[in-house]
Specification:
Length: about 325
């Protein structure tokens, strides 16, 4: 089967096949443990480089640590969908831990991200604000894009906080979100107390803060690559999907937990990450509109970059009528 310019073996050929691909079989331990080991080794190398004034080695460690942190952001994303670990309490434990360390509680990310799925590309999409809002000037949106790329480590947590503050939360949602922020506060209170007690402020700055800034950049660029500049009327038309042909691209996709198969993820949010590739040919072939599909991440990124000059998302930008893109349960899995 040929998807755009990409040839893919068609695994799923029917809705019944798609239903079977929802089967949750395993967790990505084979990806997580090597990432964890690499993060520890590179972080220790950065500490050594700082203590020995080997600044060239230190600077070379920064992008590696930032990228490994980004990998854990993808792990966190899957935990928010309840598709990281088949044992629910372990899924939640990993999710709450990563969320507290990453400044966005699991309960907050889950609430906001579910709205991103159900209201993708509309003015109600909280993750893509302000790029979905025609009422915000071009200068305002460009400034937001610059801030989000350069200071995503702070911008993204504030974006999620804004979303829950302006939302009408149920009592249960409010309690869960408050508990999440309380856990985040306790986690970072303990972190700061230890850093202050042992005088690790300089070390914390050069080994953790700088990579966290790079991680924020990667998260923002990933989000922009997935959606910015698209004005489709369905989740597939509003999402860039990468389907790699070369073995190297397939390895990169696997290391990214197939997050680049993003259109399929938006179409079927409950499919585990390892089943996204076999679900993609059928998903794209049954789309109701043309889908932006690329053979590698860089081509998707380069397609997005010109959109930064006037960042916007959604059909409301190209139609006098703000077309309803709220998806039906038949079109996309609900997110918890």
């Amino acid at each position: 089967m040929r998807i755009g310019q990409v040839e893919v073996t068609a695994h799923a050929t029917s809705r019944e096949d798609i239903a079977r691909l929802h089967t949750f079989e395993r967790w990505p331990g084979h990806i997580m443990w090597p990432i964890m080991a690499a993060l520890i080794v590179v972080s220790l190398t950065a500490i050594y480089a700082w203590n020995t004034s080997n600044y060239l080695l230190l600077i070379s460690c920064w992008p590696l640590i930032g990228y490994l942190m980004f990998e854990f952001s993808l792990v966190f994303h899957d935990a928010s969908h309840g598709r990281l670990h088949p044992v629910p309490w372990l899924n939640e434990l990993v999710g709450h831990t990563l969320g507290s360390m990453g400044l966005v509680p699991l309960s907050v990310f889950r609430y906001v991200h579910s709205r991103h799925h159900t209201d993708l590309g509309t003015e109600r999409d909280p993750e893509l604000w302000p790029y979905t809002a025609p009422g915000i000037s071009r200068a305002g949106r460009v400034a937001a894009g610059i801030l989000e790329i350069g200071f995503g480590v702070i911008y993204l947590p504030l974006l999620f906080l804004r979303a829950v503050v302006i939302s009408r939360l149920s009592p249960q949602e409010r309690r869960g979100i408050l508990r999440g922020y309380l856990m985040l506060g306790l986690t970072w209170g303990l972190n700061i107390a230890v850093i202050h007690r042992f005088g690790f402020w300089e070390l914390f700055l050069v080994v953790a803060v700088v990579p966290m800034i790079l991680n924020g950049m990667l998260n923002t660029l990933n989000k922009f690559t997935q959606h910015l500049g698209l004005h489709g009327r369905t989740v597939l038309g509003l999402t860039r999907t990468v389907v790699g042909r070369h073995w190297s691209m397939k390895m990169i996709s696997k290391s990214l937990m197939y997050n680049d198969y993003h259109g399929t993820h938006h179409r079927y949010a409950k499919i585990p990450y390892y089943h996204l590739p076999p679900a993609t040919p059928y998903t794209i072939s049954t789309s109701r509109e043309p889908c932006p599909v690329f053979s590698n991440v860089l081509s998707a990124l380069f397609d997005m970059l010109p959109c930064l000059a006037n960042p916007k998302v959604g059909p409301q930008w190209v139609s006098a009528d703000s077309i309803e893109v709220r998806v039906s349960p038949d079109e996309v899995d609900r997110v918890p």
